[in-house]
Amino acid sequence: MPRGLSCLASPEVRAGRYETPSASELHRLMWTKKGSSNHLDEVYPRIYIGDMYAAKDKRTLQCHHISHVLNAAHGKFNVNTGPSFYRDTSITYHGVEAFDMPSFDLSPFFYPAANFMKNALSSPTGKVFVHCAMGLSRSSTLVLAYLMIHEHMTLAGAIKAVSANRNISPNEGFLEQLRNLDKKLNCY
Known about the structure:
Elements: H1 3-6, H2 11-14, H3 23-31, E1 40-44, E2 47-50, H4 52-55, H5 58-63, E3 68-71, E4 92-95, H6 110-121, E5 128-131, H7 138-150, H8 155-163, H9 172-185
Parallel strand pairs: 2-5, 3-4, 3-5
Antiparallel strand pairs: 1-2
Helix pairs in contact: 3-8, 6-7, 7-8, 7-9
GO molecular function, one term: protein tyrosine phosphatase activity
GO biological process, one term: negative regulation of MAPK cascade
Subcellular location: Cytoplasm; Nucleus
C-alpha cells in the first residue's frame, strides 16, 4: 500500500498531530469500554472475534453465515481445527500457529492474515470469524492489524472500534508489535 494512503486515516494523521499512544494509554482505551465476552461477537461489520468453543461449533458458525475462519491458535498444541475440520461446510480456513506469549513475534502474520480477511470481505456475503483460545489476545491483535492495514485506522481508532463490541486484551508483546505497525503506517 502506498504510504500516502495510510495518512488518510484520520484528521490527526493528516494534520501531522497523530502520535502512537503509549501502551498504558492503549490499555486505558481497552479497559474503559463495555464490550462483551461471548463465545462470538461481531466487532466490525462482518468481522467476528471469538473463542475455541465457537470455532468448534460449526452450527453456530453456519447460523451466523460465517464464510471464512481465521484461527490465530492453529496447531496440534493449540486449537486443533483446520480445513479438514470444516470440510463438511463451505467455510474457507486459514491458520496461524501463534502462541499467546509476549515474546512471540506475531507481526510476520499481520499482512497475510489481513489479506485473508480482506479477501473474505471482498464478497458482499463474506463474513470472517477470527479466533484463538479465549478470543482476547491473538485474535484481537490480528483484527486490529487488519483494521489498521486495510481500513486505514490508527491503532487507537481500531481499539475503540473493536472494544466497543468485545473485551480485548492483546498481550504486552503483541501490543508493542501493533504500536510499531501504527508508527510505520502513519507516516513517521
